[in-house]
Amino acid sequence: MRRISRLFVTLIGLVAVMPAFADEAAPVAPAERAAIRQTIESQIAAFRRDDGDAAFGFATEALRRRFGSAETFMRMVQTGYQPVYKPSQVIFGAIETIDGAPVQHVLVAGPDGNLVEALYFMKREADGVWRIDGCLLMKSDLKSS
What we know:
This protein is of the alpha+beta class. The chain has six helices and four strands; from the N terminus they run ααααααββββ. The protein has helices at about 1-15, 30-50, 50-55, 60-65, 70-80, 80-85; strands at about 90-100, 100-110, 115-125, 130-145.
């Protein structure tokens, strides 16, 4: 257990300095950072409860149209995104701007113990709410146990 904690402390530092390819844009305001984090945390909580409707609601309208239903969305997440579907640990890193949009770095330990960096592409929708516009998983050779 001690090894896991040390590893995660080390990885927090790495995630914080990872945005090497970020645009030279104004930093995301603290209130916006908090709203983005809340959206991601809420979707992960919905995944953990297997609440597809709630999880689907945190996706942008464009993603909801693409998947068509919460059931289709959840099947995709369950089969291709296990680390964010049922993570054992979640650590939020830096937010960078790519092509004018904020991207939140999140380090997760999947149910298999593998560490993955999830890049959450965020979009503020017309209603003023931040929603998830995509997620890219970047594998690592490291394990949390």
